Amino acid sequence: MPEPQAQDELLYLGIDGGGTKCSAILTCSKHNSLGRGLAGPANPFRGPEQTIDSIEKATTLALRDAGLSQDDLSRVIAGVGLAGVNLPIVYETMSKWKHPYKEMFLTTDLEIACAGAHDGHDGGVIVVGTGSSGCSIVNGEVLIIGAHGFEFGDTSSGAWLGRQAIRAVLLAEDDLGPKTQLTESVSEALGSNGVSIVEKMVGAKPSDFASLAGLVFAAADKGDEVATDIIQQGASYLSHMVRKLASTNPPAISVLGGLKDLILPWLDDDVRMQLVAAKNAADVGAVIYAEQKHREMEATAKVSRPSN
Amino acid sequence: MPEPQAQDELLYLGIDGGGTKCSAILTCSKHNSLGRGLAGPANPFRGPEQTIDSIEKATTLALRDAGLSQDDLSRVIAGVGLAGVNLPIVYETMSKWKHPYKEMFLTTDLEIACAGAHDGHDGGVIVVGTGSSGCSIVNGEVLIIGAHGFEFGDTSSGAWLGRQAIRAVLLAEDDLGPKTQLTESVSEALGSNGVSIVEKMVGAKPSDFASLAGLVFAAADKGDEVATDIIQQGASYLSHMVRKLASTNPPAISVLGGLKDLILPWLDDDVRMQLVAAKNAADVGAVIYAEQKHREMEATAKVSRPSN
């Protein structure tokens, strides 16, 4: 039978939600993982319902993995980092969620990624996954670069690379651009060509486009001119982003996200030289964020409580 | 009281439907306009319901303008040219429409534009409006270039120019691109900046983006470097498109669409030299198309009818 004290003990839950997946980690403290959970997309810009559903699923799986039950939610302090929350209206929508936790601290996926990468200390990150963006936290000042979404930004992200590849296929089929190994492999992967690609991609999500990113890197590795052009254009944007983050003087900058290993060799030399490996994943960063915010709240509560 | 013969006489209706508007012209023959009607967007790629609604409204207005009633629809041969109909699934959807006409001939907005520009003879057109695309008709062979829609194509169209302008504003606000008169005028026109623009444009239609195109041309005229870059990139694509159409040897090529006068000076000299003015608008082209198709059908019917 568990000790009564253990049943009262606070638990920390870190949630990292993005366009492709939502991961959860349950801990006693950041270095003591009890369980993990993984669920589907959690980008509230594309719908709060699916996001909440994914967070709840990832939470349940993490509790189960830790041998705990839903009853234990009452002692969970959750740090929730989500893509899209940099948009005020999205933040507002998600803040209204009647969450099941004891406390919830909501912020961007970027801030928890940065907290994770640098163990809660100042630093910067660029995240290159389904989307792309950058963030630095220096002396409490948060600078976010990009995070404008697939329509206007996400340059060099998996979704962007995939869309550029499709555009190259369509240009080639109009004989207005070169036909290369890339344009052939993309047509093949989609199982269609010409205007049929347009039909096939109606309602496609960024993650659908991102599924083509691997083909672009594979073609570029073999010297494909179209693939190389696309990646160089994207990498140039990311190199500029790193330099911009560096101008805020963070002690360290890391590159994160599903494409980090593939894009790294394409960044400018001066940029690559200053990048360091991240200390923790973003979901651990969400735990660190939750611990920090909870401690701040406790401190504020103590200060505002009469001393007698 | 109208002559009995007049009540039996065939009428031709030309419909030109695109992302921004749907225009209708009612005629006895192509050179004898009886009435006109104008309604909202009619791009079936973005929804067949709205398209049908716009076509019906434009038809009703044209009938009314001609002093005719819905009863007269039974003697209307309609030529309907619509954006998006180059996609097989869109064509199929629109073909299922239980239209109110005696006969309806459905084709792309490009084919009717080409028929109109060259009076039903062989020729080529590029259309630069909300979207962009090109078409040539030579010896019955139809070549369509572009027409891939806003997600993957429409380079140099109004919607594309507007989106590029917004991207430039967001890049400038991240300090990753120059702040210029254009980035300021676009922020002002949208009444917002930074991520608020992203919020503001959620669910925006291509026509919403296209409403910013005028600002890009205005800034470029004053030497704005960002605006000039955007337009040069777009115009280069169009110049290539004209050369590609020219390679099919059409007797003449015209540039059409809402932005034709603004984009013309930016096309390459060799391209501009070979462009001729269009003879008729696209809705008249739809009438010409309907007359041609109706005549072909009559001829086929006569041939297949036993001669005794």
Please report the first level of CATH classification, the CATH class of the largest domain in chain A.
Alpha Beta
Low-confidence stretches of chain A: 1-5
Strand order of the largest sheet of chain A: 3-2-1-4-5
Overall pLDDT of chain A, averaged? 91
Helix coverage percent of chain A: 40-55%
Radius of gyration of chain A: 21 Å
Q: Which percent range describes the beta-strand content of chain A?
A: 15-25%
Which secondary-structure class do the elements of chain A indicate? alpha/beta
Count of helix runs of chain A: 14
The separation of the N and C termini of chain A measures: 39 Å
Q: How is the biggest beta sheet of chain A arranged? A: 5 strands, mixed
Q: And the CATH topology of the largest domain in chain A?
A: Nucleotidyltransferase, domain 5
H-E string of chain A? HEEEHEHEHEEEHHHHHHHEHHH
